[in-house]
Fold this sequence. Notes:
about 10% strand; 2 domains; six-stranded parallel beta sheet; alpha/beta; Rossmann fold
Amino acid sequence: MVIAWYHTGMSAPAAVDWSAIDSVFLDMDGTLLDLAFDNWFWQDLVPSRYAELHGIGVEESRAHLAPKFESASGTIDWYCIEYWTRELKLDIGALKRAAGGEVRFLPGAEEFLGRLRDAGKRLVLVTNAHPETLAIKDERVAVSRHFDASYSAHPFHAPKEHPDFWKRLREKERFLPSRTLLVDDSLAVLECARGAGLAWLRAIRRPDSRQPPKDTKDFAAVDRVLDLL
Length: 229
């Protein structure tokens, strides 16, 4: 199968020479799955439950939580269910499982995965999501079934924003950085992957279907993964 990119209003630099790529590394939340779920979960559901626990208003709850979230940003703790369960005295895993029916693929993501599979590319899921979070989302949309391999950052003890993640991934997954494409909605992750030598990097402008496109700075970008084909 030959995959060709087509014009969708994206700038030419976002085009991909698929003949030059063997492995495709894909982020999960905000790249394949709609980040609307995670934003709603952390910005609305968790503050609401925290407010109920402490007998305060939701806005006061958000004010209490904001510095906690800020201090964990960019660390492995930010993605850790156990950490937030301890920190907030809320069963985050149970809350996610109860809300799992709201998990959705972004438009075109499943078609993209199927077409790459048909083209013989090696598909690798690389996510900061905690293994339990991945399992919960798999229960809902079976995202892992599309992949040859799936890696959570947690066993590597470093998030994708940290060089150690990419060093440790190389010990588990054999790939040529010069022939590997990474697609992610996090500019910090893409920047770190660039430092690790990955030659093909693409950002997602619409990680949350409810929000307008975001600025991806100097990274070539598409609104959705299907636009890369």
